[in-house]
Amino acid sequence: MKIGVSSYSFSQYISKGKMDIFDTVKKAKELGFDAIEFTPIPEIEGKTRKETATELRELAKAVGIEISAYVVGGNLLSEDEAERKKQLDILKEELDIAAILGVRLFRHDVGFQLPVNMCFDEALMLAAPIIREAAEYANSLGIKSMIENHGRAFQDADRMERTVSAVNHKNFSLLVDIGNFMCADEDSVHSVSRVANLAAHVHMKDFIKKDFYSTDVKDNYFATRGCNYLRGVAVGSGDAKAAQCISILKQAGYDGYLDIEFEGPEDCIEELKKGLAFIRSCLNA
Questions:
Q1: What does the alpha-carbon distance between residue 2 and residue 43 come to, in Å, rounded to a whole number?
Q2: Using alpha carbons only, how large is the chain's radius of gyration in Å?
Q3: How many C-beta atoms surround the C-beta of residue 253 within 10 A?
Q4: Distance CA 243, CA 236 (A)
Q5: Which of 25, 251, 258, 283 has a CA that sits 20 to 30 A from residue 17's CA?
Q6: Beta pairing partners, 260
Q7: Which of 251, 246, 56, 73 has its CA nearest to residue 150?
Q8: What pLDDT, in 10s, does the model give residues 191-208?
């Protein structure tokens, strides 16, 4: 396996003007990561997003780091067919950028939360044809298409399995985020063990968990779907049981990227160093 980092992990520095998208490439290499993945390429004055993608690809090549994946949003749960088709067109545009980056892995969202009065089966019926068309277009570009256990609608292991079955396309698989299962109040070890064989890409994320009745929940926690609380920490420092999740992935035959996503309040650079060292220790065990 190779260890990567999401450009999202540097959000602290980017939001404060200490770093831009190009700096993330150089910093990832400096920290010792094998790869970097990008969230949606930002609009930069005087450049098209495709031009920025080209520059990022060339920069990564120059510094000697791989680009593992390109991950974007998406909302495919509108009951308006025209809106769903519009979302498909947006995904195709993002896939064109993924092709420019030279990646072979592309993740898009399905929708953050189920609309009022919509059950999961109805949501899956609406989304599956769009996911399948995106997978088909991605296939024409030589890119694997994925969704992630991200957001509160398609986050459970069972729902992810059912989505793969419903889409039923050879070019569609899963991005498995070990921490995000906790956002749906699932045990990461149990959930990763259910979908490890379907993983085309993996996010390493960790949280400290507090239950609904905890009296010591302070700032920097956010609510899960079941109204428990999570706080982002360095990989290996929380309750996701990251070492065991890596062992499960190994056992399932996964040999791709393990990309760190850090969401905590501490200095992201220092926490990324800790996470990288932890994952290396797991892989060398």
A1: 29
A2: 18
A3: 9
A4: 7
A5: 258
A6: 5, 204
A7: 73
A8: 999 999 999 999 999 999
Q: How far apart are CA 243 and CA 248, in angstroms?
A: 9
Tracing tokens 């991005």 back to the chain, one arrives at: 175
- pLDDT value at residue 218: 83
Residue 140: partners with Cβ closer than 8 Å, 6 or more residues away: none
Which pLDDT does position 275 carry in this prediction?
98
- CA dist 157 and 271 (Å) reads 28
d(Cα 224, Cα 267) in Å, to the nearest integer? 23
Domains, in order of start, for the chain = 2-284 (3.20.20.150)
Output the pLDDT for position 206.
98
Query: Which pLDDT score, from 0 to 100, does residue 165 have?
Result: 98
CB-based contact 203:148 (threshold 8 Å): yes
Buried b (16+ CB within 10 A) or exposed e, 188-208: bbebbbbbbebbbbbbbbbbb
186/166 Cα distance (integer angstroms): 22
The encoded tokens of residue 193 equal 């063990």
pLDDT of residue 185: 97
Round to whole Å and give the CA distance between 201 and 99.
17
Determine the pLDDT at residue 285: 83
pLDDT for 54:
98
What is the arrangement of strands in the sheet containing 229-233, beginning at the earlier edge strand? 206-210, 229-233, 222-223
CA–CA gap between residue 210 and residue 105 (Å, rounded): 34
The pTM of this model reads 0.97
- Angle between helix axes 157-167 and 188-195 (nearest 10 degrees) is 20
DSSP one-letter code for 14: H
DSSP for 77-135, please give it. --S-HHHHHHHHHHHHHHHHHHHHHT-SEEEE---SSPPTT--HHHHHHHHHHHHHHHH
**Residue ranges of the chain with per-residue pLDDT less than 50:** none
